[in-house]
Amino acid sequence: MKVRRRLGLFMASSMLLSACTVGPNYQPDRMKVPAQFKEAAEEHPATPEEIAHTTQEMTEWWASFNDPMLTSLVKQAIEGNFDLQIAGQRILAERAIRDRSASQWYPQMDANMGGGDVRYSLNIDNWPIRPGNPQNRPEASMLTYGAMATWEMDVFGRIRRDVEAHERAVEASIEGRRALLMTLLSELASDYMLLRVTQLQIHIATDNIRVAKDAVDLTNKLYLEGVGNTLQIAQAQAELDSQIAAREPLKTRVSQITHAIAVLLGKMPGELEDQLKVVRPLPTVPAFPATMPSIVMANRPDIRMAERKYALATAQIGVAVANLYPHFVIPLTFNPNASAMYQLFQVNAMSWQFLMMASLPLMHGGKMTAEVRAAQASAEAARLEYRQTVLTGFKEVEDAMAAWHDDIEYAEQLHKAAEDSATASERARKLYSAGLVGFLEVLTTERTTLNAQNQEALAKLERLRDAVNLYTALGAGWKGVPLTNTTLPVSLETQNVLARAFKQ
């Protein structure tokens, strides 16, 4: 009864004190940001329909390019990319570490049993008579069994802060996976756009090879008619050889891009080559988002991860501060000993210990206060890192918007230049066939046309990448993609029968 009263009193006192959690509580860093992006240039408030369309567009932005192949590749990448699966396993590991930290709230108990023979030294003066061995013989048989338990009372919240810190680490790892997912989709889309534009460049190169062959045939014909000369034939042949050679690196690039895309999907290089090398039209450049409030920046996983890391660092201050306060532990030991099996359960064999222990740090050379200062500095660094991440995010969005708007006119001018160059090249060939201009003018116009067409193709690539970069900068694409649990096929219940009965 006395033990029960003491235990009850101690438990009641601990429960009252457990409300005391030392260290600072996390407060989000309120950073002043503009309501709208400067480069958004919204001329009228967005309608509810436009807002709903933009929201859907941000969720699955790759569908805005109207390319079924791209949509299929994105789905396969989400399911098969190994880096994404690794990030998922890290989340599971962080959750397990959090659960391990939370286990400190519960009593820690272990059972033991054993037996055997022992021999004591007789060469020590005044050695007491050993219990159960009145003849004071040096040998004895001993059997024992029992249990040991400890329970730390979280009076000042050290465990609570530790669990809180690990919970924030879990949340940060979730945002890290989302950031990786965004990077994966951005890289996949950029590679896919480059693949289609490179195929377009191969098509342009093939057309120019055909034109160069026509030029060779024309110079040979004029030479036979007595109008041309061997210099013109050599120039035409050299141009043809140059055009054929220029096409080969483009073929190599196509192969390399298909290999990169296959790896992003978790497949062997070359596995998708037959599908990806089929020439398809360029994806459609989506329309600029109808509404663009700065609140969409809250979707960026890197900003969310930086904020969670700040919360984690704040909780770690509480852990360091709690170490300055007393620790309360209840140790319990039950360990009967006897020399014979029938004696093990007798009252005289009982041996147990029940204590209420408290420890107070007194002198450690400033180690614990230094740990508090280090935790404070780390938390402040995390807060500043969060602010820097927000600034960087706004910069990336503004840059992407500026590129989107500027590249529209750039692409239009290059398209006009390509058309004018093609017209000039056609006229130069006609004039050359009539003997009105030299072959040098034909070569010059053809090279100008090829350069203009390639520049236009690259401008189309930039327009497509502008859209990808904007969606990525806005933090779009990770919503609606759940964590894939790919744990190893090992069941704890099949490994240890005790796991069925006890929470180990």
Automatic annotation (TrEMBL):
The keyword Magnesium does not apply. It is a lipid-anchor. Residues 1-19 form the signal peptide. One of its GO terms (molecular function) is efflux transmembrane transporter activity. This is Secretion system type I outer membrane efflux pump lipoprotein NodT. It comes from the Bacteria. It holds the Pfam family OEP. It is found in: Cell membrane. Gene3D superfamilies: Outer membrane efflux proteins (OEP) (1.20.1600.10). Belongs to the outer membrane factor (OMF) (TC 1.B.17) family. Keywords: Coiled coil, Lipoprotein, Membrane, Palmitate, Signal, Transmembrane, Transmembrane beta strand. NCBIfam families: outer_NodT. Residues 440-474 form a coiled coil. It comes from Acetobacter senegalensis. The keyword Lipoprotein applies. Its main location: membrane. One of its GO terms (cellular component) is plasma membrane.
